[in-house]
Write a structure and sequence with these properties.
The chain is mainly alpha-helical and about 190 residues long. It contains eight helices and no strands. Helix 1 runs antiparallel to helix 6 (about 125-135), helix 1 packs across helix 8 and helix 6 (about 125-135) packs antiparallel against helix 7. It is globular and about 55 Å long. It starts with a helix and ends with a helix.
């Protein structure tokens, strides 16, 4: 089953939510120290693994009664919105880069490791699981989330410094929070009907 609409909605939710994320800032730092392509490939591979995990978790949520799933999804979207709208801005952790890293494989695996560790329990992973539970369309949600995360990583690596000079991360964070709040409100309206 494939739905372009579901993939597009997923992309529209995940893309802005990932922009202010610490793992993307870590990727930006890695991109200033290493060649862009191995960093992007490593970060993208880590994102894809997390999308698969999140979609599988969303599939497990679907095993619950539909009202319970709707409540869980709505609450998690509301919590995500609250975290983005009310939370403090996070500083990117300093990325520990091994001395003398020159091989493409080491650049790839360093980038993979940094992003893989940084994404556990991340708002975009939770949102992907929620969307997979809500739409019961793992392929469309997985493709939409995967494309969003890979696109953000590419955008940040190619134009990250210029973007950060023009668009404050706080603004992007608030916009993503508002989008999640709209999804939580839509879920609440659906529950009340």
């Amino acid at each position: 089953m494939w739905s372009l609409t579901t993939a597009a909605v997923t992309f529209a939710v995940i893309f802005p939510a990932e922009l202010p994320d610490k793992s993307l800032l870590a990727s930006l730092v890695l991109g200033t120290r290493f060649r862009t392509l191995p960093v992007w490939l490593g970060a993208s591979a880590a994102f894809v693994v997390h999308v698969v995990i999140a979609v599988a978790a969303g599939g497990l949520l679907r095993l619950l009664p539909s009202t319970v799933v709707d409540i869980v999804v709505t609450v998690l979207f509301a919590l995500g919105a609250a975290l983005l709208l009310l939370g403090r801005e996070e500083e990117a952790d300093e990325v520990d880069v091994p001395a003398g890293v020159t091989s493409t494989a080491r650049m790839f695996w360093t980038s993979f490791g940094v992003v893989f560790v940084g994404e556990w329990g991340d708002i975009t992973q939770l949102a992907t699981a929620n969307l997979a539970a809500r739409y019961d369309d793992p392929l469309s949600v997985g493709v939409g989330a995967g494309l969003a995360l890979v696109s953000v990583a590419g955008l940040v690596l190619l134009a990250g410094n210029k973007i950060l000079q023009r668009v404050p991360l706080a603004l992007v964070r608030r916009g993503a929070g508002l989008l999640l709040a709209v999804l939580a409100l839509a879920g609440l309206v659906q529950l009340l009907r």
